[in-house]
């Protein structure tokens, strides 16, 4: 008797495409996925139309991987549609999980983003005065575009999510294991973070760690690194202490500080403010003026602290919007 | 109704809480707008607590510890001295006014100083008006 194949969909909201590439980076395993499942929608790889998804019965899809944040009305529509059609909805990658890099736009107003990009950007057509609008009348024809929201949302702000698979992008090995786990009978309890560890990154980092005393913070290319010593001890910002492990310590192993893409470690509620706590412990100064100077030497502090998780943080967005 | 600021005070056990206690036993009057939580050291104040207080509806957060050099745990208040400026820099990017978070050193003998600081902070926040952090978050989620 032929076993009914798993019905899956992969979709991107406000995303760069890297998450879809992470799925392809599972290499030949992708052939097993094709054998195991029918792919009903995957805009980057398969020609499926939204109308085909709308025609599906509710819960007809077994599994949907949604990557990308929710930035506009199209993302929102597809999030709601796929939620209705899917038994399991997975927030795949940092953007769907926490808001991701697009989430940094929550520090800047919508008007400022649109005017900057369409009117003042050096790469635009000179003299351009047009900003895309949700509705445009062109010679009597009504053209419609998705509506650009005032701020960025993570997927869970819009619809209930069954699992989160963190990472920017998720490590291909974790993608593979997660697909196998969700396709098989041994599913983790709903609401779990899958494809990641229940500890912080430092627990998995092999660099030697001792007392940290920092007078100046460096960007990775500014100093000659000791490959065996904790990056924070060398003055390189590394979000490891507050970030969930599971990526395989990819960034610190190559001499870059952890950027925090796997989101807050278990028991960390707000990644950025928790890291401030850690920074306060390692800055080596008891003089308020010197402390000011050291802090001023950190470029774009807020974006470093909340690089992947601003819409998921306590504050979510700037009040100036 | 006139606006009454709600200020959360987080005070260290060894100096500032004793200072606030002295203000009380000395019958010094100060505004009742501050709600005090006692912690063992100002270094116990995780910046997450401050942010959590703001999103939970506090109009201001006052953190008090021992004067530099006087920490019961020798170095704790220096950590706070470094954390709060970092936090303030971040809060500024989120559009939260600088006056809403304040760090002060108050010894066990400075009851009057505690009362003066609470008076001053209450007045400053009264001028600033209510914090919009909490209500903005609970606004219509689509906000088109």
Verbal overview:
- With 321 residues, chain A is α/β, with parallel strands linked by helices.
- Chain A has helices at residues 18-24, 29-36, 50-54, 73-85, 93-98, 110-120, 155-158, 172-183, 201-204, 250-253, 271-282, 288-296, 301-305; strands spanning 6-12, 37-41, 61-67, 70-72, 86-92, 135-138, 141-144, 148-153, 163-165.
- Chain A folds into 3 domains: 6-102 and 153-183, Rossmann fold, CATH 3.40.50.700; 108-149, no CATH class; 201-312, no CATH class.
- The termini of chain A are far apart.
- With 144 residues, chain B is α/β, with parallel strands linked by helices.
- Chain B has a 4-stranded parallel β-sheet with strand order 2-1-3-4, sandwiched between helices.
- In chain B, helix 1 links the parallel strand 1 and strand 2 (34-39).
- Classes of the chains: A alpha/beta (321), B alpha/beta (144).
- Chains A and B meet through strand 8, helix 11, helix 12 and helix 13 of A and helix 2, helix 3 and helix 5 of B.
- Please state the structural category of chain A: alpha/beta
Spatial order of strands in the largest sheet of chain B: 2-1-3-4
Q: Return residue spans of chain B where pLDDT drops below 50 for at least 5 consecutive residues.
A: none
Most extensive chain-chain interface: A-B, 35 and 32 residues
What structural class do you assign from the helix and strand content of chain B?
alpha/beta
Describe the sheet with the most strands of chain B: 4 strands, parallel
Strand content of chain A: 5-15%
**Elements of chain A, N to C (H/E):** EHHEHEEHEHHEEEHEHHHHHH
Order of helices and strands of chain B: EHEHEHEHH
Number of DSSP-assigned strands of chain B: 4
| Weakly predicted, low-confidence segments of chain A | none
User: What is the correct CATH architecture of chain B?
Assistant: 3-Layer(aba) Sandwich
| Tally of DSSP helical segments of chain A | 13
């Amino acid at each position: 008797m032929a076993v009914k194949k798993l019905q899956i969909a992969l979709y991107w909201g406000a995303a760069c495409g890297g998450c879809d590439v992470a799925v392809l980076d599972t290499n030949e395993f992708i052939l097993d996925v094709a054998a195991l499942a029918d792919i009903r929608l995957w805009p980057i790889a398969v020609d499926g139309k939204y109308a085909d998804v709308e025609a599906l019965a509710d819960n007809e899809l077994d599994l949907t991987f949604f990557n990308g944040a929710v930035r506009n009305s199209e993302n929102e529509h597809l999030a709601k549609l796929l939620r209705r059609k899917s038994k399991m909805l997975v927030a795949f990658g940092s953007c769907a999980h926490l808001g991701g890099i697009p989430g940094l736009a929550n520090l800047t107003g919508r008007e400022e983003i649109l005017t900057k990009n369409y009117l003042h950007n050096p790469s635009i057509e000179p003299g351009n005065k047009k900003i895309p609008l949700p509705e445009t009348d062109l010679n009597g024809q009504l053209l419609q575009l998705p509506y650009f929201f005032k701020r960025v949302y993570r997927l869970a702000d819009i619809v209930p999510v069954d699992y989160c698979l963190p990472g920017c992008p998720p490590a291909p090995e974790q993608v593979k294991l997660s697909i196998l786990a969700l396709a098989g009978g041994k599913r983790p309890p709903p609401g779990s973070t899958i494809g990641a560890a229940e500890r912080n990154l430092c627990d998995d980092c092999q660099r030697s760690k001792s007392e940290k005393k920092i007078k100046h913070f460096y960007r990775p290319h500014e100093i000659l690194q000791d490959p065996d010593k904790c990056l924070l001890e060398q003055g390189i910002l590394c979000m490891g202490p507050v970030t969930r492990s599971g990526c395989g310590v990819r960034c610190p192993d190559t001499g870059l500080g952890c950027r925090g893409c796997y989101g807050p470690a278990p028991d960390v509620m707000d990644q950025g403010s928790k890291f401030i706590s850690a920074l306060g412990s390692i800055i080596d100064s008891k003089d308020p003026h010197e402390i000011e100077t050291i802090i001023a030497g950190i470029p774009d502090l807020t974006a470093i602290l909340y690089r992947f998780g601003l819409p998921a943080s306590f504050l979510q967005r700037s009040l100036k919007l | 109704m006139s606006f009454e600021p709600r200020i959360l005070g987080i005070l260290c056990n060894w100096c500032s809480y004793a200072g606030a206690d002295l203000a009380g036993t000395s019958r010094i009057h100060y505004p009742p707008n501050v709600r005090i939580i006692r912690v063992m050291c100002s270094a116990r104040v995780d910046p997450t607590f401050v942010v959590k207080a703001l999103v939970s509806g506090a109009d201001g957060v006052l953190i008090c510890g021992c004067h530099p050099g006087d920490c019961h745990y020798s170095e704790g208040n220096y950590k706070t001295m470094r954390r709060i400026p970092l936090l303030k820099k971040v809060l500024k990017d989120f559009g939260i006014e600088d006056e809403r978070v304040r760090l002060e050193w108050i010894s066990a003998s400075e009851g009057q100083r505690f009362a003066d600081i609470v008076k001053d902070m209450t007045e400053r926040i009264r001028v600033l008006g209510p914090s919009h952090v909490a209500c903005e978050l609970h606004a219509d989620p689509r906000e088109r």
